[in-house]
Amino acid sequence: MSPPLRCLYCDLDGTLLGADASFLHDADGGFSLLGARALEACARAGAEVVIYSGRRRSTLFHDARLLGVRSYAFEAGAGFVLDGELHWLTGDVVPEAGRTVFDVIEASGAPALLMDRFALEYHAPWHMDRDVSHLFRGRADAAEADALLEAEGHASLRLVDNGAIVAPMPGIPRPHAYHLIPRAASKARAVAFHMRARGYAPEECIAVGDSQEDMGAAAAVGTFWLVANGAADATGVANVRRCAEPNGAGVYEAVLTELAERR
To answer: Of 190, 189, 224, whose CA–CA distance to 205 is shortest?
Structure first.
């Protein structure tokens, strides 16, 4: 008999949220309650919902209140708020002498290096007021960027591809959002941190997302569900399942499928 579902880890933009980052709209902009019904199904089953996102801590504070969520990972897993308590997951890159991790990364010159070498720009206005990550939009090969960072003395940092965005950029048909964060930070580590804190086993948890970074959580949970609009490469990852539906409808599909299969 399969264990009960105890936790859903869910990305926001491109996953639970639909067009224009709306919780109440589908991928095409039509009104939809399927995302809300996914959370309702979790509540009825006694499963906790945790959101993980590249969004700022201050933004997720309000998002979590609106969604009725108690815990969340912010800035691509650089930090975690567990029942209101803040935890940093940035490894050896920490605030120093009154400067935030964001300030430390900026002073290193790494953001300027990446914008000079790749088709990247700051993702205004969401790049402002961040604690840790430098948020860009554009197009870059994350592996190539990481090799450049290491070669230029920034091995403690990495560039995270957090999926496609709708903001237009000249010459780039489908720009992506990217986070420059400490190498120790990741959404996968944030998920694993919460599972340890709650005492959840992998087979009791699922995660849903749309990006390559989201899919890193597959290493921690029993099953990762990739929504239909996600473009992540699942090659070689055995516990990834693909949703037939995009965005909130995909989350609803994943939750109902898991609950039905665990009866």
So the answer is: 224
Q: Which amino acid is at 200?
A: Y
Q: Which residues contact 144 (CB under 8 A, 6 or more apart)?
A: none
Cβ atoms of 38 and 18 within 8 Å: the answer is: no
Give the span between the Cα atoms of 207 and 7, in whole angstroms: 8
Phi/psi at 235 (5° precision):
-55, 125
Pairing of strands 157-164, 176-182: antiparallel
Q: Longest C-alpha distance within the chain, in Å?
A: 55
Buried b (16+ CB within 10 A) or exposed e, 216-254: bbbbbbbbbbbbebbebebeeeebbbebebbbbbbbbbb
Length of the chain: 263
Do 139 and 123 contact (CB within 8 A), yes or no? no
* Inter-residue contact 67 to 39 (CB < 8 Å): yes
Per-residue tens of pLDDT for the chain, all 263 residues: 689 999 999 999 999 999 999 999 999 999 999 999 999 999 999 999 999 999 999 999 999 999 999 999 999 999 999 999 999 999 988 888 889 999 999 999 999 999 999 999 999 999 999 999 999 999 999 999 999 999 999 999 999 998 888 878 888 988 999 999 999 999 999 999 999 999 999 999 999 999 999 999 999 999 999 999 998 899 999 999 999 999 999 999 999 999 999 98
Q: Decide if 12 contacts 229 (C-beta within 8 A).
A: no
Does the pTM exceed 0.85?
Answer: yes
CB 129 within 8 A of CB 112: no
